[in-house]
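pls design
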């Protein structure tokens, strides 16, 4: 009881809330799902700021003062404190029967870093990392959007890890195991490439002891906790590997590969469409439901890009309405065989969607 009383008496005080495109808009029980430091806690506290703290029990389960055994007293504590109308458990990853609280008049809000976490009678809300437009709204450091693209590439989509390298390293070590970090470091070297678990295993075995089963389980976990994102090949049983937050690339590796980083940057903006994304022989990304294809080419001249598109369309078998060629500074628009081709700088494309 003392632990629960402590958290009740010490409601978090935050002077500034980061406004996000997604907000909690329900009074039903809800699970907020998203990656590590994607802003779930801020989202919950922003919602709860509309109510008096005496009506809220907020617990961050990653707080070192929190003990899992305190959950056994949760029913009794809430029953003895009927003024509490909101129970918020941040970073929740424990076994608990929430049906034991159904007699209480309160809304339960959970945040998790697990794509596969589900509970009966709970709604679910997915909170992605910052997209470019949100990043601009939260960072007023530069007025020029071109400069902000470089800043975005440097700091990434994570709402916490963008402050400095020391904070970045500390938070990564607190969230990932040493084995997971070793795996991620190797994947960072192969970002945007077709992933072969067998080849990855061979490479890792040159430096550490690891079984195929352990590697598979680690990759599944890293996909489930919104670290890795896989893009499937439309025609073959292949897939490319990316990061949900592209800044992990430079956080884990000194090897620079701007083309792969830029490709991951473009992919992160495609998440907002909430559609299945593929890649093909000729296109970096393809969304069949929208009939849109994407090429990522930060530096190539637009005349060369035009020639490339013409060559692709001469062999094309896909249903296409628009081909987007995302660059750093090139700009053009034209039609080829009824297909709209748009060459756009990243910032204009990202802010125009």
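designed seq:
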């Amino acid at each position: 009881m003392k632990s629960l009383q402590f958290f009740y008496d010490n409601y978090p005080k935050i002077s500034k809330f980061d406004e996000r495109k997604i907000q909690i808009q329900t009074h039903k029980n809800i699970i907020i799902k998203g990656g590590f430091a994607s802003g779930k806690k801020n989202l919950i506290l922003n919602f709860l700021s509309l109510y008096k703290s005496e009506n809220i029990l907020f617990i961050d389960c990653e707080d070192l003062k929190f003990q899992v055994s305190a959950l056994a007293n949760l029913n009794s504590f809430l029953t003895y404190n009927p003024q509490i109308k909101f129970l918020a458990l941040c970073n929740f990853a424990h076994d608990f029967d929430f049906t034991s609280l159904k007699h209480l008049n309160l809304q339960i809000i959970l945040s998790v870093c697990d794509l596969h976490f589900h509970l009966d009678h709970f709604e679910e809300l997915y909170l992605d990392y910052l997209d470019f437009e949100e990043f601009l709204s939260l960072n007023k450091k530069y007025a020029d959007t071109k400069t902000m693209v470089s800043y975005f590439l440097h700091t990434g989509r994570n709402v916490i890890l963008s402050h400095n390298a020391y904070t970045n390293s500390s938070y990564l070590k607190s969230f990932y195991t040493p084995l997971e970090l070793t795996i991620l470091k190797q994947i960072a070297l192969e970002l945007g490439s077709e992933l072969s678990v067998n080849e990855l295993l061979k490479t890792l075995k040159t430096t550490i002891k690891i079984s195929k089963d352990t590697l598979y389980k680690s990759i599944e976990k890293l996909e489930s906790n919104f670290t890795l994102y896989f893009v499937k090949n439309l025609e073959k049983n292949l897939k490319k590997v990316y990061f949900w937050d592209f800044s992990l690339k430079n956080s884990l590796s000194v090897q620079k590969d701007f083309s792969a980083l830029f490709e991951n940057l473009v992919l992160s903006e495609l998440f907002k469409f909430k559609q299945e994304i593929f890649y093909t022989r000729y296109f970096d990304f393809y969304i069949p439901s929208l009939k849109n294809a994407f090429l990522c080419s930060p530096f190539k001249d637009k005349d060369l890009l035009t020639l490339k598109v013409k060559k692709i369309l001469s062999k094309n078998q896909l249903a296409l309405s628009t081909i987007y060629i995302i660059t750093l500074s090139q700009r053009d628009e034209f039609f080829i065989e009824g297909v709209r081709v748009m060459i756009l700088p990243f910032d204009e494309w990202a802010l125009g969607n």
